[in-house]
Amino acid sequence: MAAGHYHVRSVWWHGWVRTWALAVGCLALMSVASAAVEVSPAAALQPPTEEWVKATLHSSPDLVWAEIETTASNAALVAKAKNRTDAMEGWLLVARWSRLMGTNEREVTRRWANAINSARLGHANMARDYDPPSRALSAMVSPQFFVNLISDRELSRSFFDLLTPYDYLPGVLAILDRLYQDDPADFVAYQELALAIALVFDVPPPPHWPHGQVSPELLPRTLPEPLEAFHFWVKSDRARKTLHRLQRLKASELKFVVSAAASFEDLRWAQASPQLNFSTLPGTYDAIRYRDDRADQSIFDWPGSSYTLPTILSQGGICIDQGYFASEMGKARGVPTLLFRGVGLDGRHAWFGYLDAKQKWRLDVGRYAEQQYVAGVAFDPQTWANVNDHELAFLAERFRFLPNYQQSRAWQFMAQEHLRRNEVEDAIAAAQRAVNYESRNVAAWELLLLAQSTAEWPVIKRESTMRSAARSFQRYPDLNARFMREVIAAMRERGQTSAADHEERQLARKFTVDRSDLAISQAAEMLNRTMVEDPPEVQLRVFQNALRQFGVGAGMDAFDRLVEPFFDYTLGQARRNDAGMVLTIAHRVLQPPAGSQFAQEIQRLAQQLR
């Protein structure tokens, strides 16, 4: 596959100077009291009922969200005191919805734009300017829909489990309300599907999705209308055109179905194939004849005049076309799929993964083991960032459906509520209880560390918590590495610089064999630090040692993460001799195979130097 260099355009939001004044005005309105919002001590020991929700929302014209939030939060504390976890979670969900619905749309949009800009997730297909009206989010949805939403704990759980700072809430809520208004019965029957569509369709996909090796004229980077998509998938499921029953999947899985890039015409063509089932789906990858002539001539972009599924099947393609074809064929049959892009010893590659009949993820269809494509990347269609390794593992393990996780989530919510109320020690205790119930609850570990930091615990005690988190994620290398990096940072904060350097080297070596990508990431952090702190001769020595220790066998990943960035840095510093040394060291240590894409990339940098 050809290298893709994409320029990310930030998303800007104007009108922020008015936000503070508007927020103050909203807070003034929230000071209005309403005696109709109340929960008796006995009622607090049971989850909120639909009748209570309806009565509360229609009780008074002076009703304000802040009062519902406070009442529900207090009821949750009553339930907590009696150890009624189910009721506690139910009231906390009401409090979270109330807090969300009472938030001004301008403020929500400002936060979202800041998150998008910070994560560099903006792109050319998104609008550059957002100027929403000054109103509470509750004004966007119909009363009937909101009663259904706040009363349905399963849908609420899925919503708050999946919600990220990168989801455009006004768009998500508008889509959900529209799907509900069109057909409430279908919405209730397929609410996880509706949620998946809302979370995926809230903003347009980026121009390099699902891959960048076909022109936008042949594959428009657009999604259909949400209502049209909802009807298509509901109809497909009811007609038994889907291999998975869509009503049995969660939104966390369905987002990998509804994010189809192929047209409905192509998807119907795929559904018409009687031979396509769970056992034959892996074969759709090799069903695309590999075009050696394109690979030999380095024709990595699609050269034809059509990029439909039937055309790809008839004309053949390279690995990216094989992966695209197979993943879209799976989506057409209601199978969650991912298109992976990876790097190996001599070039880039693509393959696909899917959720099989036993609801286990197979993530290696078309991957070549001898090429060490250890950790390819795939789009998370909810955010259009790369999906995390551990999230794929969590999806496969499906532990979020188990009672222990549900208990953990309830105590995580309680910890968040205590932290909002500035009850820091209670927050620490609740977060600790959450990780005790389910040690894979990442958000609970993050809350525990945040609460300890807020309580100004000594660094060495927080470091102990970080190590406990790292041990809990031994089977998830990216999370293990993340928390260990926090440990290393804490050690430096305590002045243990030499020990931190040793721990950092150990962390990189730990992943050299099984997860070279994480070893390379750690080596890249070491290289980035030396570029800031050390003289040129030390930088070159660190670079050479990093390549020797962690780059051999990593191939293109070592090129992308170590060679090219350091080459660009030295050239940008007008250190032409050092830039030449970078290429000499890289060629000597990594020994790229002659004629490979790896060798071509090294040659490209050499030409740039000349």
Automatic annotation (TrEMBL):
Residues 1-35 form the signal peptide. Keywords: Signal. This is Uncharacterized protein. It comes from Synoicihabitans lomoniglobus.
